[in-house]
Design goal:
Bound molecules: phosphoenolpyruvate, magnesium ion
Structural class: alpha/beta
Number of helices: 20
Radius of gyration: 25 Å
Strand content: 5-15%
Distance between the termini: 48 Å
Strand order of the largest sheet: 1-8-7-3-4-5-6-2
Helix content: 40-55%
Length: 539
């Protein structure tokens, strides 16, 4: 069976199909016959939860330091608590009910008990008890590995994935993403490109293909279910040829991003977190042009502390060893929702309370992030850019806050480096006032994903608009041209960090417009370098 979709990243994937297990918040109470077997299920899930917590502890220790890793040790100890386990066993045996229900009920009861205590420390444990119970319930429901019901790599099928879901996924288990919904610029698509794996959107599959063998053809945009032997062999051959092409691209490592007539540009990478840095180095990017810092916030249950952020930024800056790392300040809201921000539900979130609007409205959150970034700037070459700008006044407000942060650090004797500051040009308003904006900043980075949605009035999350949201629309290309010209007039360098920057059919166009930098998914670096090296601007 062959199902047509739309490709968001080329390549071939072959493997078992697995339907994403959405975290089910509703825990059903079902009657069981064999309480011993149910207790055994709980024991296994608890052991698996402890393993996951140990892995999280080790990862956090490396990325954000001991103080922040400690919580995972505390969670492991709580799972072994005798009273907690007795309560679960008693509920299973006395009520003859399923383990999920017993764990969730115990979690609720204990958490209420802790919340009612006088001691501050014990009260704070209330959320932890809920957290560990949710983890065990997810494992029991088969939604462990972040929603992948397998311990072996799979082609993951989903309706669509929210950024808060993608951060939980165990990436080593994903051969390819296939979604029913989604759009070319949705975050699942961006993640697929970062990981460099073939992926499709708009594939109308039935859930009963779960467990069958599948082939994703990221060139033709098709999913093949239960291929016959001949098809399988043909695709295995194609996959080998692809690997050979990738190997040849590796020969471009260490070479300049230079046109035939000698124009050099910067070719940087987009990342979502510390975990993407090895891909950046492996693909030989000249720096990081977009560090989507909100993924740090998406991966937490509460606001990440200044130190937690500092460790992450410092690690990236140090690992990049002097190469520029541009951190985009918090771009939360719209499709990137985090519970603890308590944002109101909006009818029109893409045009709502998001990104810099929240930061300027809640300066305590913004200042914490800025302090962390400036402190980390001492350890490498850091730049900062601000998302969703629509006015010069916003930039002036930002500069005032930045000046306050620097003064505070000076007063405390905390060192920081020279930090280039820029704005993202991702609203038509920013394009129209780009001449004025350029006088205020060091650089522009054009966010074509949002710029396209706002210019064409096409919600980037809406799969139905895929056909009309033309990424090569002349309106968008003219806006890019205008931004580059105005940026240069005002003395700012100009890059593109939206997905369009990696579109090699436009590389020559961008170079002729005078772009100074392209920032693309790590997996696209070498193909874009290849495209740059074929252009002759003298002709
Ligand atoms: C963009 O809008 O083009 C961009 C790079 O930012 P994001 O995709 O994170 O909104
Ligand atoms: Mg954007």
């Amino acid at each position: 069976m062959e199902i047509q979709g739309k490709s968001v990243f080329g390549g071939i994937a072959i493997g078992p199909l697995s339907v994403y297990a959405k975290a089910d918040n509703v825990v059903k109470r079902t009657k069981i016959q064999d309480p011993e077997a149910e207790i055994e299920r709980f024991q296994k899930a608890k052991d698996k939860a402890k393993e996951q917590l140990q892995e999280l502890h080790d990862k956090a220790l490396k990325e954000v330091g001991e103080a922040n890793a400690e919580i995972f040790e505390v969670h492991q100890m709580m799972l072994e608590d005798g009273d907690y386990q007795d309560s679960i066993r008693n509920i299973i045996t006395n009520q003859m009910v399923n383990a999920e229900y017993a764990v969730a009920t115990t979690g609720d009861n204990f958490s209420q008990m802790f919340a009612a205590m006088d001691d501050d420390y014990m009260r704070a444990r209330s959320a932890d008890i809920k957290d560990i119970s949710n983890r065990v319930v997810s494992i029991l429901q088969g939604a462990d590995n972040g929603g992948i019901r397998s311990d072996k790599p799979v082609i993951l099928l989903a309706e669509d994935l929210a950024p808060s879901e993608t951060v939980q996924l165990d990436k080593s288990l994903i051969l390819s993403f296939v979604t029913r919904g989604g759009s070319t610029n949705s975050h699942t698509a961006i993640l697929a490109r970062t990981m460099g794996i073939p992926s499709l959107i708009g594939v109308d599959y039935q859930d009963d293909i779960d467990g069958h063998t599948g082939i994703v053809d990221g060139y033709k945009g098709i999913l093949i279910v239960d291929p016959d032997e001949e098809t399988l062999a043909a695709y295995q051959k194609k996959q080998d040829e692809d690997n050979e092409k990738k190997r040849l691209l590796q020969e471009l490592k260490g070479k300049d991003n230079v046109t035939l007539d000698g124009k050099k540009i910067k070719l940087y990478a987009n990342i979502g977190g510390v975990g993407d840095v090895p891909d950046v180095l492996q693909n030989d990017a000249g720096g990081i042009g977009l560090f989507r810092s909100e993924f740090l916030y998406l991966g937490c249950d509460d606001y990440p502390s200044e130190d937690q952020q500092f460790q992450a930024y410092k690690t990236v800056a140090e690992t990049m060893a002097g190469k520029q790392v541009i951190i985009r300040t918090l771009d939360i809201g719209a499709d990137k929702q985090v519970d603890y921000f308590h944002l109101d539900k909006e009818d029109n979130p893409a045009m709502g309370y998001r990104a810099i609007r929240i930061c300027l409205d809640r300066p305590e959150i913004f200042k914490t992030q800025l302090r962390a970034i400036f402190r980390a700037s001492y350890y490498g070459n850091i730049g900062i850019m601000y998302p969703m700008i629509i006015s010069v006044n916003e930039v002036k407000q930002i500069k005032k806050i930045v000046a306050d942060v620097k003064k505070e650090l000076d007063d405390q004797g905390i060192p920081y480096g020279d930090v280039e500051q820029g704005v993202m040009i991702e609203t038509p308003a920013a394009v129209m006032i780009s001449e004025e904006l350029a006088k205020e900043v060091d650089f522009f980075s054009i966010g074509t994903n949002d710029l396209t949605q706002y210019t064409l009035a096409c919600d980037r999350q809406n799969a139905k608009l895929e056909k009309i949201a033309d990424t090569h629309h002349p309106a968008v290309l003219r806006e890019i041209q205008m931004t580059i010209e105005n940026g240069h007039k005002g003395g700012a360098w100009v890059g593109i960090c939206g997905e369009l920057g990696a579109d090699t059919s436009l590389t020559e166009t961008f170079l002729r417009m005078g772009v100074d930098e392209l920032s693309v998914s790590p997996s696209r670096i070498l193909s874009v370098r290849e495209a740059i090296r074929k252009v002759d601007l003298s002709k």
